[in-house]
Write the structure tokens for this entry.
Amino acid sequence: MVVRAGEKDKTWFRGDRFYSIQGEWYFTTREGSEEGPFGSKKEAEMELLLYIRHADDDLYCRGTEQAAN
């Protein structure tokens, strides 16, 4: 993580979270995971809101792992 001299932490801005590769949209989380691809930036934004809303929900975060078992 790049920070300015004298700063301990990077300040996160929502705009820093979204990026597009070959027409598919992704977002990054503060935890460092990359989520996507999504068909549009709007879809990625909506998924980020769901991600944040359910960040502490074990079933949401681990749903894929549990489905595999």
The chain has one domain: 14-68. DSSP finds two helices and three strands in the chain. Residues 14-68 form one domain. Helices lie at 41-53, 58-68.
